[in-house]
Amino acid sequence: MLWTKKDLLGLEYLTPEEIELILETAESFKEVSTREIKKVPALRGKTAVNLFYEPSTRTRVSFEVAAKRLSADVINIATETSSVRKGETLIDTGKNIQALKADIIIMRHNCSGAANMLARALDISVVNAGDGWHEHPTQALLDIFTLKEKLGKIRGLNVAIVGDIAHSRVARSNIWGLTKLGANVTVCAPEMLLPVEIEKTGVKTSSNMDEVLKNADAVNVLRMQFERDEDAAFPEQLDYYKRFGITEERLSRAKNDIIVMHPGPINRGIEMSSEVADGKNSVILEQVTNGIAVRMAVLFLVAQAREAKI
Amino acid sequence: MSILIKGGRLIDPANKIDAVLDILIDDNKISKIAKDIKTQADTIIEAVGKIVGPGIIDMHVHLRQPGREDKETIVTATAAAAKGGVTTVLAMPNTSPAMDCAENIALLKEMISRDAKINVLVCGSITKGRLGKELSQAAMLKKNGAYALSDDGCSVDDDELMFEAFKKAKQAGILTICHCEDKKISGKGVINLGYNSTRLGLRGISNESEYKRVARDIELAEKAGAAVHIAHVSCRQSVEIIAKAKKKGIKLTCETAPHYFSLTEDALLGYDANMKMNPPLRSFEDLTAIKQGLKDGTIDAIASDHAPHTENEKDIEFERAEFGVVGLETELAVSITELIDTKLLDWSKLFEKLAFNPARILGVDKGSLSQGMVADIVVISGEKDWVVRKNELISKSKNSAFIGCSLRGVVDYTICNGKIVYKK
């Protein structure tokens, strides 16, 4: 199986085989980060540009580390200090970066579809580091990678995703990735935070956390941002924690070895208790470590696809 | 100046004609319609194998002048119209300034008489500045040449004010055209609410935001006894509500736009802002209902909702891009492709929707090919295909939803007021 896509825009657009290929490639890259000299020459002479329209530390740093461990040169553009502030359009910014002969743009943007648009306008690779409510493919890939590492497989697993599904790109990418690989996915949220017709993606929906946890092999807990969306109704914070918060007490009724994941940053006491975040079921820091391997794999594959084309 | 159109298949729903006949135009009028006219003429158009029909009357067009001449002007819009077989447009009042007083209409009419290639009728605004707060003077607008009133792009939210508007329009004897949208429901939505809005992570616009307002406007118009026309019907429930009201004998008419019977929300899956319009492209079920409504007569007219926007306003992040698409150059061909080719309508019915009914709704003596009428005529190669190319669009803005599409039906000639205003 050969990777042929110049971009990674979302998991909806990938075949199960392509997802597996990224995971396999990540597996082989994971070892690099355990070496004394944490570097391979795979992308030597390549330039990756981090173009972040939304504040993000963890994803940006993870991509930067991944690119550097592949020996790529990394440029960080924070839009607050660039000509974007002067009203430059996204496509103009992208074309300028392309004219600098960069090879890969890694973009975070607050508008859904921004990465799709940029990828269409450019010849160089675009890796989506999160666009609006749409997709955050590398986050889902690292979640799936971690799950597979822990439980040995994805097919047949019962995975719960809990939180603000409606406004979550992490949820959407996880849904596509997990269902494509054969997991049984249930999204769990107050009704008002479930997007319309989400069942058509192949997931079950529920608003009963305890019911969902009973059979879950893993639960992916989304970050709740109660202040974020001014035009949607939001549940009351305390009531949310009572009904959906992942606590020790609630986990005591779940499978003993249930995997607890979180894309970070965690709001302790809002969607998850501190005890759970730091507890035996949590794989949250392992997710962060795996994120590097997964992003190395993605950068490597898209760069290689470009090379094959040229 | 005389023009003789020879040997074409003449379609004139007003006179129930569908036959091979010649038309003779003298000065600006149709002087004779008969088989094999032998008279000499200054210009002879050989139309054997072609369709000859009344020029299209598009009752929903944004000329953008005055105010947004960077998007479109009367010169470019009417040239685009002529190319599309359109001989009359109703210019929507969402200009800057809005068409809410005699002075502004006079200003626009002056520009029209200077620049327009085809007939341009003016639509006044229901409220001052289209702000939905204070009524414009319906009688005054009518006296100064407005053919209808609309707050185009906006709905008057206040029920009482809208009722008052209908009463005033009734007194003035002028038609009210309603953009039916409850913005409290549609909110910041950018595409149809459904599986696709969920997949794309975009805010949705429900059918409800449209049909609830359709129901309200019909109810208020009925209570006031006023004539009402519903603009750009896009969803199943609106069609049902209108059909029911018509059955009850309420006097109302409505239009849909070509994109609502040719495209669905699936066109949005690539975040193409040229597919972004308001109301949004709906589901296949809605498209089917629109087609059925055209067939059974619930939907009276087809209008383009021609809405030019510059590339700077379209080639940006999807949710920030403007709503609307250009349509003057493609509406006839899309209609032929989707309605004639599929045998949903015959040519007579199609010209009813594109010319005869709009004329009737607006109360103008156009839309048919009777002897003695001003000659607004289109000659079409009804079975010829063409591909919509961005660089071939003559509208100032290129935001067409049909770029790259193969369409059927090529306009060979457009004749307006007895003059050839477009020739392929």
Count of DSSP E strands of chain B? Answer: 20
Our count of helices of chain B gives 13
Say how many strands of chain A there are: 9
Outline type of chain A = globular
**CA-CA gap between termini of chain B:** 20 Å
Low-pLDDT parts of chain B are: none
The spatial strand order of the largest sheet of chain B comes to 8-9-10-11-12-15-16-17
- CATH hierarchy class name of the largest domain in chain B: Alpha Beta
The CATH homology group name of the largest domain in chain A: Aspartate/ornithine carbamoyltransferase
Strand content of chain B: 15-25%
Query: How many DSSP H or I helices of chain A?
Result: 11
Short summary:
The complex is a heterodimer of chains A (310) and B (424). Chain A has 310 residues and is α/β, with parallel strands linked by helices. Chain A is built from 11 helices and 9 strands.
What would your notes on this structure say?
The complex is a heterodimer of chains A (about 300) and B (about 425). By secondary structure, chain A is of the alpha/beta class. Chain A has two domains: about 10-135 and about 290-310, Aspartate/ornithine carbamoyltransferase (Rossmann fold), CATH 3.40.50; about 135-290, Aspartate/ornithine carbamoyltransferase (Rossmann fold). Chain A contains eleven helices and nine strands. Chain A has helices spanning about 15-30, 60-70, 90-100, 115-120, 135-150, 170-180, 210-215, 235-245, 250, 275, 285-310, and strands at about 45-50, 75-80, 105-110, 125-130, 160, 185-190, 205, 220, 260. In chain A, strands 7-6-5-8-9 form a five-stranded parallel beta sheet, with helices on both faces. In chain A, strands 2-1-3-4 form a four-stranded parallel beta sheet, sandwiched between helices. In chain A, helix 6 (about 170-180) links the parallel strand 5 and strand 6. Chain B is of the alpha/beta class. Chain B has two domains: about 1-50 and about 375-385 and about 410-424, Urease, subunit C, domain 1 (Roll), CATH 2.30.40; about 55-360, Metal-dependent hydrolases (TIM Barrel). Chain B has 13 helices and 20 strands. Chain B has helices spanning about 75-85, 100-115, 140-145, 160-170, 185, 195-200, 205-225, 235-245, 260, 285-295, 310-315, 330-340, 345-360; strands at about 1-5, 10, 15-20, 20-25, 30-35, 45, 50-55, 55-60, 85-90, 120-125, 145-150, 175-180, 190, 205, 230, 250-255, 300, 375-385, 405-415, 420-424. In chain B, the strands form four sheets. An eight-stranded parallel beta sheet of chain B has the order 8-9-10-11-12-15-16-17. In chain B, strand 13 (about 190), helix 6 (about 195-200) and strand 14 (about 205) form a beta-alpha-beta unit. Chain B is globular, with a radius of gyration of 20 Å. The two termini of chain B are about 20 Å apart. In chain B, about 60% of the residues are buried. Chains A and B meet through helix 4 of A and helix 6 of B.
